[in-house]
Amino acid sequence: MTIKEYFSSTNGKGVLSTSDSSGNVDSAIYAKPHFMDDGSLAFIMRDRLTHHNLNSNPNAVYLFIEDGNGYKGKRLFLKKLKEEENSPLIKEIQRRSYDLEPGENRYLVFFEISKELPLVGSGQ
């Protein structure tokens, strides 16, 4: 099963963790990633702390916990590739609508997966 198939067939909750260039850490609840045709994955972001951290440190970890009993899921180690501000693609791929403040920007941030591990254990 590919990672794209896994996320399309598995329900759960996700947390995206980032840090700034000084190592100050942040974690935020994020929906499942969007898988792009070029093999990258993307998240839609507002201009909040997670987005700010990625501008100074391109590394992140997405932790996904499957619904149900026990501790099943994935840890995806990510590296930011690029971003698009107010991209028309956001409206095409978004799974729900957002209430935005007037003039508020949204970003489509693209990542490559550096490493994939299970939620628990090293996977080795």
**Main sheet specs:** 7 strands, antiparallel
Topology pattern, helix = H, strand = E: HEEEEHEEHE
CATH architecture: Roll
Structural class: alpha+beta
Number of helices: 3
Provide a compact summary of the structure:
With 124 residues, the chain is of the alpha+beta class. The chain has helices spanning 3-9, 49-56, 88-93; strands spanning 12-19, 25-30, 34-35, 41-46, 59-66, 73-85, 106-118.
Features:
124 residues; 3 helices; globular
What features would you describe in this structure?
A hairpin with a 6-residue loop joins strand 5 and strand 6. It is built from 3 helices and 7 strands; from the N terminus they run αββββαββαβ. The chain is globular and about 40 Å long. The chain has helices spanning 3-9, 49-56, 88-93; strands at residues 12-19, 25-30, 34-35, 41-46, 59-66, 73-85, 106-118. The relative contact order is 0.23. With 124 residues, the chain is an alpha+beta fold. A 7-stranded antiparallel β-sheet has the order 2-1-5-6-7-4-3.
Q: Topology, please?
A:
Layout lengths: L2 H7 L2 E8 L5 E6 L3 E2 L5 E6 L2 H8 L2 E8 L6 E13 L2 H6 L12 E13 L6
Antiparallel strand pairs: 1-2, 1-5, 3-4, 4-7, 5-6, 6-7
